[in-house]
Amino acid sequence: MAIGLSLHIGLNQVDPAAYDGWSGELNACEQDATDMASLADSAGFDVTDPLITSEATSEAVVFALEAAAGRLAGGDILFLTYSGHGGQVPDLNHDETGDRLDETWVLYDRQLVDDELFELFGKFAKGVRIWMLSDSCHSGTVARRLPELLSARELDRRFHTEDPDEVGRRIRAMPQTVQSTVYRRDREMYDRIQKARTAKDLARIEASVLEISGCQDNQTSADGIVNGLFTGTLLEVWRGGAFPGSYRGLHREIVKRMPPDQTPHLFLAGAPNPAFARQRPFTI
Q1: Above 50 in pLDDT, residue 265?
Q2: Would you call 149 helix, strand, or coil by DSSP?
Q3: Beta-ladder partners of 270
Q4: For a designed S-S bond to 45, which of 13, 40, 184, 208 qualifies (C-beta 3.0 to 4.6 A apart)?
Q5: How many CA atoms lie within 13 A of 182 on its CB side?
Q6: Which pLDDT value is given to residue 31?
Q7: Does residue 143 have a pLDDT over 60?
Q8: How far is CA 40 from the centre of its chain?
Q9: With a threshold of 0.90, does the pTM exceed it?
Q10: 50 Cβ contact partners less than 8 Å away, ≥ 6 residues apart
């Protein structure tokens, strides 16, 4: 019988000492992680204790993923969720063909570069399915201009406020100024992380990865009062398990309910497994 493991990460703030005094306070990320853990538990997954805020360090996340890789075999599934700020660092190993920036998860003590995440996925056995949700965003430039681009009504709908300063605090992206300062200060570490990983190495993933992210790379994800907008919409579509469709169908229904400036993205990586996206979500 297949095994299902789940790991859920949610940060309502980060360590200011690691991010040049920026604490990155958010409202709903811890609740996102808790709700995803409850959903996974009801679906029969073996749920790892959620990594919440100060517990969500780079060491803890890496350890949890390596432990999952050691347990899962072909046919098993990992359900992985992240809720928090996204960031970017310059791409040094040329695995990003578009904006030449590597995306990051902004963990409590440092950023986890997407290269590191995919290297961890490479430790999973052939035939493992990895189902990942990331409720974060990466474009600090778009985040800064968002209050200018949206009407007061749309700002209130997405962020429950029309105050541009408050909107800025409710966008799940590390501010551009903080990204630049932190990268300059910790450049040696982030450059070393990327130089240790080549595009060829990152292609050696024998597991099948299916990710739905909260928005496109050039968009932003909205925080909320209870849940992030993406996570809350997913829960609304799922309806406690009443949703009858596939992963692709789930993605389509979420997109229909989201505002046009936040479009969740479905991404496939690793070993091709066309049947995976057609399966029922949260099924072991």
Answers
A1: yes
A2: helix
A3: 208
A4: 40
A5: 25
A6: 98
A7: no
A8: 17
A9: no
A10: 8, 9, 10, 30, 33, 34, 37
